[in-house]
Amino acid sequence: MHKRLELLVPPPLWLLLCVAMAYGLAQISKQWSWQMLPLGLVKLQWPLVFLAAFIAVTSLIGFARKHTTINPHHPERSKHLVVEGLYRYSRNPMYLSLLLLLIAWCLHLQAGLSLLSCGVFVVLINRLQILPEEKLLTKQFNEQYLQYCRNVRRWL
């Protein structure tokens, strides 16, 4: 079944699923009176939102400059490998920006249990989006992409 989901669901929809999961976990946390997150952590929610927005916009600009697709359903349509800008530090800064938004949402909810949704998001994106993308990009760009993978981490 997981093969059918590969590259099928847009990453923002996986994010929304995990946002809903985080909310549900926060409600369970409150119902059972489990410990809330320290206020110092909660204050990081807005800086994370701004950082996520910066990363997303900067990443999109990198793709626009190379005149290549950002369509997560068809990485094989990529005309150029983007390795400049934030892509020197992360192979997936757009997905990183989504994760940062999810972390900010969990901080807003103030429930430590909600952070489990972040782990679920990483697993879903790795398995159903990033790994299939990497297979296609390896096929398309071969050694150039493999060298890039050796030099740059998947997330950060």
Describe it for me?
The chain has 156 residues and is mainly α. Helix content is 67%, strand content 0%. Helix 2 packs parallel to helix 5 (93-109), helix 4 runs antiparallel to helix 5 and helix 5 runs antiparallel to helix 6. The chain starts with a helix and ends in a 5-residue tail after the last helix.
Biggest sheet character: none
Which whole number gives the mean pLDDT? 92
Beta percentage is under 5%
* Helicity range: 55-70%
List keywords for this structure.
single chain, 156 residues, mainly alpha
What is the strand and helix layout of this fold?
Blueprint: H1 2-5, H2 11-31, H3 39-42, H4 45-66, H5 93-109, H6 116-151
Helix pairs in contact: 2-5, 2-6, 4-5, 5-6
Write a brief structural summary.
The protein is mostly helical.
